[in-house]
Amino acid sequence: MNHNTKEKYKRLPGKSGFIILYSSKLWMGSDHLLLVHSVAGVEKYNRFYYRDIQSIITSKTITGKIWNVIIGVLLGIFLLLATTTQSGWSGFNTVMAAGFFLWLTIHLWRGPTCNTFLQTAIHTKKLSSLNRTKNTKKSMDRLKIVIEKTQGKLSPEVFKENVLKQPMDSGLRGTTAVYTPAKREPRHETGKIHALLFALLIIDAFFIIPTFFLTHVSFTIFSTIISLAVIITVIIALVKQAGSTIPGAIQKMTWTSMVFICISLILGYGFSLTMAFENMEVAYNQWELFKRVSKISPLDNTFMMGLHIYSLCGSFLIGIPGLVLLKHYWRNKRRASIE
Hints:
There is one protein chain. The protein is α+β, with helices and mostly antiparallel strands. The chain has 3 domains: 3-61 and 113-179, Pleckstrin-homology domain (PH domain)/Phosphotyrosine-binding domain (PTB) (PH-domain like, Roll), CATH 2.30.29; 62-112; 188-338. It has 10 helices and 9 strands. The strands form 2 sheets. Strands 1, 2, 3, 4 and 5 form a 5-stranded antiparallel sheet that branches. A hairpin with a 2-residue loop joins strand 4 and strand 5. The longest helix has 37 residues, at 302-338. The radius of gyration is 26 Å and the shape is elongated.
């Protein structure tokens, strides 16, 4: 919005997006609400006249809690690394830990997450900027005043008789409800990211098998890449499944994957520390230490053998049942669509 346009509007609390790539903001005009979407500097506008707004619905989500757990785990990992490493790596891990601590502090300060939808007689629109209950409440208090001024105040008796008993798309005119429902319909999720997660776990398990008999730095590099992909995928899957149609069994398997990965990271870090102490001459040369560790066979090291067996069993026991559960989920969805 240009400077002159801003003078005609009042900005509502709340904002969503990622730096300059994408953003969503709400502005209050004299007779309408303006939703501004910006993608790489290109803006798109949606106007909602106060007289046409039927309801604004907000419901809490657990997305914020999931991110708090994820950021907290990453903070703990880098704190552990910062206190146990030396030289330049200690400084790097300290900076990373400070960054995650700041991120977690801001995340907690912003408060619980939520989804907010605005409904008119024509359609329902998600208000992406109202994604925190703190900002949503402030915006709702301000919107309630101007909407009631335009449409008139709705008494509790009329609200119960004419609004709560009607479906959300009944097309009521001249009545506005701003409230928080006890429960909202779950969001549809295909489960493709979950399929990728479980498939990566199985691929990782198959790749572990030859390392019992063959040792080479390329095996270790590939295993590290797969592990990083699994970590990224499980985080995305946890965020996507929150408040979605993904069955509870699959959601539990995803959380089990997260726990499995965290334990693997802790065990792997413990093994790396052990190797560093046993090879002090290359302890400060990460690449040389990496190559030396890659040459160790699980058959010659009890710790590595236990780590390999844990990773092998965990990957298979989570990946295979996860894909089976997804197959049943997709099959039931197809049957429901046919019927």
